[in-house]
Amino acid sequence: MIDLDGTVLFQLGLFFVAYIFLYFLVFRPMIALITAREEAIDGAKEEAARLVSQAEGLDSEFDEKLEAIRVEATAERENLRKSGLAREAEILEAARQATEAELAKAEKELAAEAARIRADLAKTTPIIAQEIASRLLGRKVA
Questions:
Q1: Which of 7, 66, 76, 130 is deepest in the core (most CB within 10 A)?
Q2: What is the pLDDT of residue 88?
Q3: Taking the CB of residue 139, how many other CB atoms lie within 10 A of it?
Q4: Taking Cα atoms as reference points, which of 123, 128, 120 lies closest to residue 112?
Q5: C-alpha 105 chain-centroid distance
């Protein structure tokens, strides 16, 4: 059986000294390390969750701004298209007017040329008729 004498007390004392020694040199730093690690992991998880929610907020804000820019770009494109169509109409109207002016000028010149030719023809018609009649009749017609 177990004999309780002074060695038990000595061994018990050695156990407590070893326990206190190991507690301060091994257990307490290890517990502090594990606690710090768990806190760091929890902090990293919280930071990751915060960053995810912040990223989602920024993503939705980005989508809203992108949609606003798309609407603005569509409006600007429509304004530019309308402006281009108006400019095209102006250019076509100016070209039409210039063409009509050139056509009117050409018609006036043509009418003047026709009148001049008719006047020349009116002057030369009796001479040509007399010449034709002379040739047909074979004699000089006056």
A1: 130
A2: 95
A3: 8
A4: 120
A5: 49
73-92 pLDDT, tens digit each? 999 999 999 999 999 999 99
Q: Report whether 130 contacts 140 (CB < 8 A).
A: no
Angle at 28 between CA 24 and CA 31, to 5 degrees: 165
SS3 3: coil
CA–CA separation, 33 vs 37, rounded Å?
6
HEC string of 42-78?
A: HHHHHHHHHHHHHHHHHHHHHHHHHHHHHHHHHHHHH
Calpha distance 65→26 (Å, rounded): 57
Q: Which of 21, 43, 45, 23 is nearest to 32 (CA)?
A: 23
